[in-house]
Protein 1
Amino acid sequence: MPNGWMTKTQFFITFAVALLPALFIEFWLHRKISKTPGARINLPNKEYWLAPERRAETFAYFGAFFAWYGCAFLFVIAAVMGMAMRANLDPTPQLPTTPTVSILVGFVLFNIVAIGGIYRRFSTTRK
């Protein structure tokens, strides 16, 4: 239940700060990983996937993966914060349980599929 403990300015600052992890994942993480020495990267069959002839392709995959992951993370943040804003505008403010749980369950499933996809992609040395 909203209780008025935060001003609008504080709320929007909190919202902006909540967006930072998504932006970090989407725009910075894959660049950081691509500059990391191969010895420090934990990847199945990394000798194969980080070989000079495949290294650019591997990091291009990571770039696309983290861009989509960042979008999914951003969707979760925006959707939940949007529901919080809408709840505060109702005369009887209450965060809707079913959509909130659905979004979180969807994100957990997205994580499972994403991890499975990475494992499937890099667990073999064949394309």
Note: The chain has one domain: 8-122.
Protein 2
Amino acid sequence: MSRIFVWSGGALFVIALAWCAWWYIGPLGASSSGGGWRALLADAGLLTVFAFHHSLFARATVKTRMTRLVPAALERSVYVWTASLLLILVCVCWRPIGGTLSDSRGWLATLHAGVQLFGVGLIARSVAGIDPLELAGIRAQATRGGLQTAGPYGWVRHPLYLGWVIALFGAAHMTADRLDPLLDVHLKGAFHLTRPVW
């Protein structure tokens, strides 16, 4: 039963990422009128919940408390399930803000595509430096004995997030709706608590 939970959580992780990519390329790329400031506040609330979950569950004290509720082998999978469901919730409940901020054409659009490909390459290289099955909560986390500093992790602490930011900011057609999810990365940093929550 636990294997089904773990593997279905990994599948949900892939579905959530694919849905988010489709959402970014499609609905968020459309130039449309939207809800303005009210939509922006609602969307910021969604992103805050998503970011807060990431920061909260990164705390050792929270992980310890989690293992009192679920077996230690399922702790990462519960995290992945929750994060994936929250990401889908953000995509489903998003309220369009509307408006186009920039729309590059010609050689500038090609340059933007190169920037986006660099971001995707950084993501791929970062994932290759860790175990993708571990990231998806399928395989138990290995004890590495310290901070990972190989490859992109030697350049920056969160190369996965940096890759996402580069890929997202690289869009040749930047709408307000495409820009707003970038707050997520900043919110994660803002909510990175230095003291245990409980």
Note: Residues 2-190 form one domain.
Protein 3
Amino acid sequence: MTVYFIGYNFARPGQNPKTLWDALTALGAKRVQEAVWIMRSSSTAAQIRDQLWQYIGVGGRLLVIESMEWAAWNPMSDVKSV
């Protein structure tokens, strides 16, 4: 399985992120920074994007990056367990 980093910005300041967080959690993702999550998946980056964009809003931003190598210091979650 491939490791992906997912970053986002909402269209409106103060938009409730709970539905996006619930969707990410259901996919097995873990939050590593304020608006950055990490996950392992056999899906492609485009498939993950297509699953998540609906929670961002039309004017928001979503970035899904396939990672070959990564390192972290003091993340919000244990990224080794992803």
Note: The chain has a mean pLDDT of 89.
Protein 4
Amino acid sequence: MALEMLAQGGHVMHVYDFRVKSGAGEDFIRLFDEFDRSDENLMHKTSDQIKDGVLCRDNTDPDHFYLIGEWSSEQTHRQILAQFRAQGTLPPFMGLIEGDGFVPVYATVVAPNYE
């Protein structure tokens, strides 16, 4: 059986683990998807993004989400986040996120490493 790796060794994964306001899960998904497909999404304008992020919903809590993506550079991802903040206008889906919970954790892919 052939297996396809989720990510390549040496790349960086960003992982967001966050909650949205109670009952706002469906609205969040719709607004996130609209923004993600728009020309306003600066993340899609760099070659450092290896694979577009995937939004995952917790099977036991409809207001709990994960956003996971693969990048060649943590620094570029951080720079683009700073550009969003500098613009002063956040995407509409951000208004549904509870607290300050939309902060990535970065992790380097270490295995498997079939380069």
Note: The domain at 12-108 is CATH 3.30.70.100 (Alpha-Beta Plaits).
